[in-house]
Design a protein that fits this description.
This protein is mostly beta strands and 171 residues long. It has two helices and twelve strands; from the N terminus they run αββββαββββββββ. The chain has a five-stranded mixed beta sheet. It has a three-stranded antiparallel beta sheet with strand order 6-7-10, with no helix packed on it. Strands 1-2 form a two-stranded antiparallel sheet.
Length: 171
């Protein structure tokens, strides 16, 4: 019987255990690799710029500003003007998937409640205001005339997002 020497086993053990000592977790940080740039602040404005980024359009509608590219704000809620809050109501959406209509049951309707139905391109398909009620409420969402696909139903109260519910429209 041939004896295995310790010198022969050590490299095998070393190279099999070596990766365990060099494992590092990944993290995602906001950073841009560009040739140069600058960030300046004044009394009521801040300007951030990078050189090397292609020219991108900025769209403005009232208080909503949409900017494409690397230079995005830290707080995404300031772009849309809608922030998510803890829901104080419960809801049920049925049937889902649906062919012609779906029903939204709300445990109660909060103050200034609005329903928005969007397609996946972000286009507003329907907007409906619902009067405040302290009792259970059923709202019928008509899907006639909509193409098969996924839609997002947003429930808002005082411009605060309560829920985003996916609706699947099938033929």
């Amino acid at each position: 019987m041939k004896k295995t020497s310790l010198i022969g086993i050590l490299p095998v053990v070393f190279f099999s255990l070596f990766p365990l000592f060099h494992l590092k977790a990944q993290s995602i940080e906001r950073s841009v690799i560009s040739s140069t740039g600058n960030y300046s602040t004044g009394s009521s404005v801040s300007v951030s710029a990078t050189v090397g980024e292609p020219v991108v359009p900025t769209y403005t509608s009232g208080s909503i500003i949409l900017t494409q590219g690397f230079q995005q704000p830290e707080n995404a809620d300031s772009v849309t003007g809608v922030s998510e809050v803890q829901a104080v109501i419960t809801w049920t959406l049925f049937p889902n998937p649906a062919t012609t209509q779906t029903n939204l049951m709300l445990s109660e309707v909060p103050v200034n409640c609005t329903l928005h139905l969007y397609n996946l391109a972000g286009q507003l398909i329907m907007e409906r205001k619902i009067a405040q009620q302290k009792v259970q409420h059923k709202e019928v969402i008509d899907l006639h005339g909509l193409a098969s696909g996924t839609y997002m139903l947003s429930i808002l109260s005082n411009r605060q997002l309560l829920a985003n519910l996916p609706i699947q429209r099938v033929d």
